[in-house]
């Protein structure tokens, strides 16, 4: 079975790096754990690090977190589906919200459970994903204050995830100004101004994040050490906390050009081949991983001599060239991956999960 590993020491290095960065700027932060897909083995590693706040968008994952560490503060960072409201109140300490009708139902459910549910109101600042439109912020906030079992503990925004709108000082300062306006008008303290995500980290190191932004939600940079603002890597972080290993289940020297009439493959594509390669061969390996597990464009062999030929549902075909490394059947090939590749792999029950030192 192909498997993905989490390197405990590299994860700790990145976590400690981010802790120092945020502590040095007077900012609290929460780990976004949705990459881990609720897998208890890897969630346990977060608990061992001393993580006190975790964000996720899936209730199954939040339940898994609470089962492992009931004292960890959980944030549901996707506006709640109405059918999920009982579980939201039961397992999420805080939820991100944009709809007053949903807030009403959260209050009613919190009353049934004998709780006061905490919420962060998300504000639309140009990304066109979730968020209350600017003209509606004050009316929704005012009405929500009347709900007896809801406590507004913050305002937040999301940038970069859908439309690719980058954060900047102006947009983040707008969020701070909303906090100031709401506090001045209604007289209620707003503890969280949640404007930072992984893409905002470079702005923090460049000292261009407004002082009012006091909460970040960090996932990708913790696990990959990415500078998402500049599409590069942060030099002081580890970039391969997660690795994929797939086993060679067939290894043969084969022609570069297939034989027969071309139709479409499993993905509905008609592959193209260079006619100059007719008559040439190379060593090809089939690996025990396929499109059911990950898109092959999301994983990258550590060995630069290896290239990907394509994949079907259960198998990945790679070109080893002349196989100068002398791979053989039963050997494993190591891959790095991007964020979406890792999510797909973590979500596949056909991929083993291991923690390594």
Automatic annotation (TrEMBL):
Xref: Pfam families: Ala_racemase_N (PF01168)
InterPro entries (UniProt xref): Ala_racemase, Ala_racemase_N, PLP-binding_barrel
Alphabetized SUPFAM superfamilies for the sequence: PLP-binding barrel
Entry keyword set: Isomerase, Pyridoxal phosphate
Cofactor: pyridoxal 5'-phosphate
GO molecular function, one term: alanine racemase activity
Alanine racemase N-terminal domain: residues covered: 7-226
Gene Ontology annotations for the cellular component aspect, listed alphabetically: cytosol
Protein name as it appears in the record: Alanine racemase domain protein
